[in-house]
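Suppose a colleague, Dr. K., hands you the sequence of a protein chain of 180 amino acids and asks what its three-dimensional shape might be. Before reaching for any lab equipment, you can write down a predicted structure in token form. Begin with the sequence itself:
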Amino acid sequence: MKYLLLSDIHGSLPQLRKALHFYDEQKCDMLCIVGDILNYGPRNYIPEGIDAQGIVNLLNERADHIVAVRGNCDSEVDQMLLDFPMMSDYLLLVDEGEKLFLTHGHIYNKDHQPKGRFDAVIYGHTHLWELSRQENTVICNTGSITFPKNGNVPTLCIYEKRKFTTFALETGKCLKKIEL
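The predicted structure, expressed as tokens, is then:
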């Protein structure tokens, strides 16, 4: 399977459209959203093209191909609109025996990892992409497709066949690869 991993949409319909175009172009099988889907958040500026209902409509069309976790800006009201579960703080994705721990990052992250052994910890929250290794665990921070920080560009990642690749959303340029 080929997974598109992204985080921190924060209600920006234009950015989600770009990400879904990338998903289709890359022929991904599943969209994994690691939080902050609809709400732009109290500390962020209002993003271009904020359209919660538009986001809901686009994602609900693909609900059968989406897994998601709750971000710190996501709420039960958001869940009422979405046709896929997104209120869990984490989920475990097992692909060909590899255990991938997906979470938003405000509870679990590279500095506060969950108990147990996982091949990768995948999160967002900080809006700073990272692809690195801590001992036997790959750390994959997807960055943000809407509000990247510290001069970074909007980013997302693909996981396929034991390999993570981080891409710049706007250009599709590969920024980094790492294997499990």
